[in-house]
Specification:
This protein is α/β, with parallel strands linked by helices. The chain is built from 21 helices and 17 strands. Helix 2 packs antiparallel against helix 3, helix 4 runs antiparallel to helix 5 and helix 5 packs antiparallel against helix 6. The longest helix has 20 residues. The termini are far apart.
Length: 577
């Protein structure tokens, strides 16, 4: 047991006049205001001592907290942590058991913590039993279970190694190694996948797909097996579950160019300097195939929540000639001939070779720093959405338009300024200046940590001057995904925002969480999502949030450094104005 929960706790609880019994401390009713105030004081002290890592004192205080309010599993979780770090493993176990009874703060993690406690107590059988229980409850973090030093006494037990997926492949043949990987992957999909069947089809169909791949392994190359595993992950049925990479030589060589799908077709928007003449070119043929054929061929290996996500991901995947070759889309793994139409309108056929200088550019925004992009070489000023895409969040005041542009590119805390602090600074500016509109741009935002959004969201909701129709705008697009999808859904549900751009890359309610694990033989990194985000109404079955004002990206605008979406917002006039 190493990590405490990431959830924050409330300081003030509304307490009932009486409580049910607890397993560690006797309960008492809190009825008088003075008792409530005393409880709030003790709770604050318990949190403070936890922050100071004064575990003995923290445990004493959390005991008082759960005695006063035994109904909140989060309090029992904190008591379990405090006793664990104070090395009182039996009392820690009792607290975690109460937490599981109440269903608070990831019960499977509490079961795992109990297994750690028993292992540290030297009670091996109880440790194994609780470890099995934790995994049957959906324990998320396979790598943590494989490496946690609390479980050191179990390392030699084959039952432990089987539970946590520690498989020695050093003496296995190639076929045995790949089959061991497939077996573990299949187990983790069924163990963790969120309501797989019938949500994604029948279990019998899925089992047939696994058996087909298992039987085909001797006939397939490594990259073909990888592609088939990606297809299997697509069957899990959500955009987060999939092949995430790994230490494989097949993943290293990629085309040193960046593709993008505009309304007019597929274009090269940035490239290594050695291919700078191709920047702005439209792809007419990819080897002997059309861009649409390449797109369709890649679709079975791209995990999705909805169809527009393919438009976002496929241009990144088509940089890998190894993958395209394994899919039977191109004949060569080292180079590809592209039929292009340049910015000058002339058509030509060029050969582009793969190299290993930039294997993965997914989260390098807008492109690797050594590359050149089209916006840089155009005479017109660069549009705001291309100005700081690598920064998690920033804003700029457009004085002539009385508009604040807020580039929200990633939902993660910037060490230089936490998102909560940024939100306070942003709305301080909005409240103290002549601001008519706030524009939140999520086109680069493929997620992060939903749990840090509250301070920003609360600032938006309580702003009477901005939270009005025609004053709050959110730009969404195909890359708006995961935590950014949650943010969009919250904004749609609780504010008066107008959405502009393209549909989001996920659904208002979706399955999505990342706890990746590495397969022992191939070293492929996989993820199986186990969390359902019901951020919208339970009956919301939409595949995406659609913009009220639909303005998909066009190359005609891109080649002149125009942002038609922002232009439309700046020119927007409400009927009530």
């Amino acid at each position: 047991m190493k990590n405490q929960s990431r959830y924050s706790y409330l300081l003030l609880m509304i307490l009932l006049s009486s409580f049910g019994g607890g397993t560690i401390a006797q309960t008492q009713a809190i009825q008088e205001p003075s008792s409530v105030n005393e409880f709030v004081k003790i709770l604050a002290q318990a949190q403070a001592k936890t922050g100071e890592k004064d575990w003995t004192k923290a445990a004493e205080l959390w005991e008082q907290v759960v005695k006063a309010n035994p109904l909140d599993g989060r309090f029992w979780n904190q008591l379990g942590h405090a006793y664990y770090y104070a090395k009182n493993f039996r009392k820690s176990t009792a607290a975690y058991e109460k937490q599981i009874e109440l269903g608070g703060v990831i019960p499977a993690k509490a079961a795992f913590n109990i297994a750690c406690n028993y292992a540290l107590l030297g009670e091996k059988e109880s440790a194994i039993q609780w470890l099995e229980k934790a995994f049957s409850m959906g324990f998320q973090d396979l790598p943590d279970a494989q490496t946690d030093t609390d479980l050191e006494s179990l390392r030699g037990d084959p039952r432990y190694r089987n539970i946590v997926g520690l498989i020695d492949t050093s003496k296995m043949s190639r076929e045995e190694g790949w089959r061991a990987d497939l077996n573990l992957l299949n187990r983790e999909i069924k163990r963790k996948g969120y309501h797989l069947f019938p949500r994604t089809g029948t279990e019998a169909d899925f089992d047939r797909a696994v058996k087909t791949l298992n039987d085909s392994i001797p006939k397939l190359t490594d990259i073909q097996i990888i592609v088939e595993m990606a297809k299997l992950m697509r069957k899990v049925g959500d955009g987060h579950s999939g092949l995430m990479g790994g230490r494989r030589p097949e993943f290293l060589p990629n085309l040193p160019v960046q593709f993008y799908l505009f309304e007019e077709g597929l274009f090269i928007i940035s490239a290594d300097p050695k291919y700078k003449d191709l920047i702005g070119s439209k792809i007419l043929k990819f080897a002997d195939r059309s861009p649409d054929e390449i797109l369709k061929g890649l679709e079975p290996i791209i995990s999705i929540d909805n169809g527009i996500w393919i438009k976002q991901v496929a241009p990144y995947r088509m940089r890998s000639l190894n993958v395209l070759n394994a899919l039977g889309l191109i004949p060569d793994t080292n180079k590809v001939s592209l039929t292009v139409r340049g910015l000058d309108g002339k058509e030509s056929v060029v050969s582009v070779a793969a190299d290993d200088t930039q294997p993965d550019i997914w989260n390098i925004k807008p492109n690797p720093s050594t590359w050149i992009n089209l916006a840089q070489i155009l005479p017109a000023p660069m549009p705001l959405y291309l100005k700081n895409p690598a920064v998690p969040y920033w804003f700029e005041y457009l004085k002539d338009n009385r508009t604040v542009y807020f580039g929200f590119n990633s939902i993660q805390n910037d060490p230089k300024e936490l998102l909560a602090d940024f939100a306070a600074r942003l709305f301080k500016f909005v409240n103290e200046n002549d601001v008519e509109k706030l524009v939140i741009d999520l086109r680069w935002n493929n997620g992060g940590n939903t749990m840090i959004l509250n301070p920003l969201f609360q600032e938006i909701i309580k702003s009477d001057t901005i939270n009005q129709h025609g004053k709050l705008f959110v730009i969404i697009g195909r890359r708006t995904f995961s935590a950014a999808q949650n943010f969009s859904t919250f904004i749609e549900r609780y504010t008066n925002a107008i959405f502009v751009g393209e549909p989001t890359g996920s659904s208002p309610n979706f399955v999505g969480e990342e706890h990746p694990f590495t397969l022992p033989y191939s070293k492929l990194v996989m993820n199986v999502s186990d969390l359902y985000w019901e951020s919208s109404w339970p009956h919301d079955r939409r595949t995406w949030i659609a913009p009220q004002i639909y303005l998909p990206p066009t190359f005609e605008a891109y080649r002149t450094n125009r942002d038609l979406v922002l232009e439309a917002i700046l020119n927007y006039r409400s009927e009530t104005n």
